[in-house]
Task: structure prediction
Amino acid sequence: MRKKWYDYLWIWSILYFTLGFFNILFAWLGMIDFLVPLIFAAVGGNKGFCNHYCGRGQLFRKMGSEWKCSRNKPTPAWMSSRWFRYGFLVFFLTMFGNMVFQTYLVGAGAASLKEAVKLFWTFKIPWDWAYSAGTVSDWIAQFSFGFYSLMLTSTLIGLIVMFLYKPRSWCTFCPMGTMTQGLCKIKQHGKDIKQ
Result:
């Protein structure tokens, strides 16, 4: 089967983290992964982004299936259960909200810039080599550190479940997938009402 251009989007995930490793301001590019799936779902009413264009999902498939980095065990049913998916979404959005609030505090001058990446929302890792102070406003840099932390943590969780279970086990509870699924249901409900 001939590969299509979007079959190579797994490279995007690697490129994103590599660029952010050397210059944290590239973390803003992650907003593409945050907004485009929602636009796809809101406009198209489907999960086309998740199924075809998600670089992270492709990376997990490539590593797990082609590179044999997965045990390929069945994904536990609780991971795809409604309570876990929505619980993880609420947790994820809470962490995102906290990141935005920290950015606001830095922008308002109530807190100082923290040049660290926070893994698993707990472990602070100094990351000061990736940013030269004064390059941009502190709030822009703070958002970069926070967003890169969020993206790196969620990717590490995805890699762990990829290794333990099926390659794309992360996709069963991915917050973006849960949000896009919700948007698709709302759009379908709107179509049903019109008919």
